[in-house]
Design goal:
This protein is mainly α and 269 residues long. It is built from 9 helices and 2 strands, in the order ααααβαβαααα. Strands 1-2 form a two-stranded parallel ribbon. Helix 7 crosses helix 8.
Length: 269
């Protein structure tokens, strides 16, 4: 550490990134790399802009901001462009948290969370994960002394009805400035409960299907076997029909031969 650093920065534990191979033979999904190269149009556009690097760029990035806003159907004021997600994450820390608004996040999470919190002098609490490494939302409520409404309470029932019929995030925007922390916490937990119930029901359905129909390999085997049995049955039916036709043809030939003999006509083949 430099002797010129402040005491606060000296105590700061720097973020340690994951392994970054230097041979460029791998696609690092953890850093959002892509196996696909840029579009040729993007390459040409970058080449064209490279000739203007001596000029200061537009600080508002208005051209791309307007296009992104049009693409996603939002206003330009709702679009923010940053140097990677870490910068916008730091902006969020500065905008929504301070000494009077501490943070709570899981103990095992993105390593930059505590770094940004300490850098911006934001008090924070790291909530331990459960034994199955899932996040216990009740710990978050307890940290802020917020009660969770009982499932059979009138308020919770109204929230369930609202969340059941409102699936767009814009439906919840008006409540952000009106609700208390307790109301907002329980509102946000309601879709979580509903999603959890839906997923549990889906898992139970998959378990029942696995027991009654087997796994994917068993179902594929059953499908192939059923297909072959259907084809075999169809072929057998065609062979039987063919044999019947041969028998009928032979019988007709005998009748024709007999009729020609009676008429004294010699059949020529």
């Amino acid at each position: 550490m430099s002797r010129f650093f402040t005491k606060r920065l000296e105590k700061l534990t720097p973020y340690t990134p994951g392994e970054q191979p230097r041979d460029m033979q791998y696609i690092k999904l953890n850093t959002n790399e892509s196996p696909f190269p840029p579009s040729p149009a993007v390459v040409e556009a970058a080449k064209a802009e490279a000739g203007r690097l001596q000029l200061y760029s537009d600080p508002t990035c208005r051209e791309i901001t307007d296009k992104l806003a049009s693409l996603y159907g939002v206003s330009p004021e709702q679009v923010i462009l940053t140097n990677g997600s870490d910068e916008v994450l730091n902006f969020a820390f500065m905008a929504f948290a301070d000494e009077d608004h501490p943070l709570v996040f899981p103990a095992i999470t993105y390593g930059f969370y505590p770094v940004f919190a300490e850098l911006n002098r934001i008090p924070y609490t790291e909530v331990p994960l459960k034994e199955n490494f899932s996040v216990d939302y009740q710990d978050y409520l307890n940290t802020h002394h917020l009660p969770m409404w009982p499932a059979d309470s009138e308020r919770q029932q109204r929230l369930r009805e609202f969340c059941h019929s409102h699936n767009d995030s814009s439906d919840y925007a008006p409540f952000v400035v009106k609700m208390s922390d307790e109301e907002m916490a329980n509102l946000l937990l309601t879709p979580c409960h509903q999603t959890d119930k839906m997923m549990c029901s889906y898992i139970e359905k998959l378990e029942h299907r696995f027991v009654t129909e087997g796994g994917i390999k068993e179902r594929m085997y059953a499908a192939r076997t059923g297909y072959r049995q259907t084809v075999d049955a169809h072929v057998q039916a065609l062979e039987a029909e063919n044999q019947q036709l041969k028998t009928k043809v032979k019988a007709l030939e005998e009748e024709l031969k007999k009729a020609l003999e009676e008429l004294g006509i010699s059949r020529r083949c």
